[in-house]
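Researcher: Next entry in the queue.
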Amino acid sequence: LRLVDSGEFWLAVFISLGDIVIGCVLGAFIAIAAALISCKLGVFRDLISPAVSVIRAVPVASFIILVYVFVRRLSLSINFVSIVIVALMVIPVIWNGVITSYKNLDTQLVEVGKVYGFGIFKRFAIIFVKNIKVQM
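Model: Structure for this entry, 136 residues:
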C-alpha cells in the first residue's frame, strides 16, 4: 500500500504499460508484414515458418534470458528487453491468424468489393479483417 502512494510506483507502471503497447504494435506490424509477404511468396513462408514455430514452442523465460544477454552485450536499454519479448510473443499469433485468414479468404468477396468500387484499404478493412476475426 505504501508503494501505491509513491509516484515512482505509478511511473514504473506507466513505463511498463508503454513498453507493452510498443511491443504489441511492433510485433503486430512485423507479423502482418511477414504474413502478407509469406502469402505472396511461398519461399518466404517456407523460410519463416520454422522460426515462427520455434518462437511459439520455446518458453517465454528462455527468451527473456537470451534477449537480456544480447541487450547487455549491445549496451541497450533494459526496456528494450520487455519490448522485444512482447513482440516475440505477439508475432506467432498474428502471423498464424493472417496466414490462415488469407488461405480461407473468399475471392468472390474481393471481387464484389472491386465491383462496388471499394479501395484497397476499405476492402482490407471490410473483407480481410472480418475474415481474421472469424478465423480466430
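Model: The chain has a mean pLDDT of 83.
Researcher: Noted, moving on.
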